[in-house]
């Protein structure tokens, strides 16, 4: 025999949408596909909301349905107008009733992203600060020039290139070349 999975459910809520007809009578509010109800997604709308109920006996792959009389004492029954805001909101959100993030959600997300941006910007700002705080002769080099004798000679590098040179000099330090080749 072919095994199948069965679940037992009990109706917990019943919701019937109605609308006023042209003859001033109330009628069941049925959509263009012949469906009616207040629960579920647009394609699977239903007038019934059900809760799972344990069977009388349960085992892996088998079991038996509940025994006895079904208790409907806690059944909620609702009749809603087809123009009810709850039903309209359910249609707009395809039954999810989720209208997206709230203002506080957006504020929190914005704060987190700004904080993350500042954390990611911090190393770059530190490198710029270090390159501009180098003392003496290196200060001139950090600003894009070099010293020859007692006067400063402007470098031809400008913009981003001078910033990269300045950071390189700040991190590596001054480069000295020895003209003493006697020991080699």
Give structural notes:
The protein has 184 residues and is α+β, with helices and mostly antiparallel strands. Helix content is 32%, strand content 23%. It is built from 4 helices and 8 strands. The protein has helices at 85-92, 103-132, 136-142, 160-172, and strands at 8-20, 26-28, 48-53, 57-59, 62-64, 76-81, 145-148, 151-154. The strands form 3 sheets. Strands 1, 2, 3 and 6 form a 4-stranded mixed sheet that branches. Strands 4-5 form a two-stranded antiparallel sheet. Strand 7 (145-148) and strand 8 form a beta hairpin. The longest helix is centred in the middle third of the chain and has 30 residues, at 103-132. It is elongated and about 110 Å long. The model is unreliable at 136-142 (pLDDT under 50).
State the end-to-end distance. 94 Å
Largest sheet: 4 strands, mixed
Overall number of strands: 8
Strand composition percent: 15-25%
Note poorly predicted spans.
Answer: 136-142
Mean pLDDT: 77
Q: Helix share of residues?
A: 25-40%
Number of helices: 4
């Amino acid at each position: 025999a072919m095994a199948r999975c069965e679940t037992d459910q009990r109706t917990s809520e019943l919701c019937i949408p109605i609308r006023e007809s042209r003859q001033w009578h109330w009628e069941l509010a049925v959509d263009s596909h012949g469906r009616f109800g207040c629960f579920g997604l647009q394609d699977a709308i239903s007038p019934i909301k059900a809760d799972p109920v344990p069977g009388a006996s349960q085992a892996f792959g088998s079991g038996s349905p509940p025994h006895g009389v079904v208790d409907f004492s806690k059944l909620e029954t609702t009749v809603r107008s087809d123009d009810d805001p709850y039903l309209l909101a359910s249609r707009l959100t395809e039954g999810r009733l989720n209208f997206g993030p709230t203002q506080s959600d957006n504020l929190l997300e914005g704060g987190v992203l700004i904080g993350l941006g500042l954390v990611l910007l911090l190393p770059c700002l530190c490198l710029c600060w270090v390159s501009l705080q180098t003392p003496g002769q290196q200060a001139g080099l950090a600003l894009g020039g070099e010293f020859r004798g007692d006067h400063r000679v402007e470098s031809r590098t400008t913009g981003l290139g001078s910033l990269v040179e300045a950071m390189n000099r700040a991190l590596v330090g001054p480069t000295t070349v020895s003209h003493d080749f006697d020991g080699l």
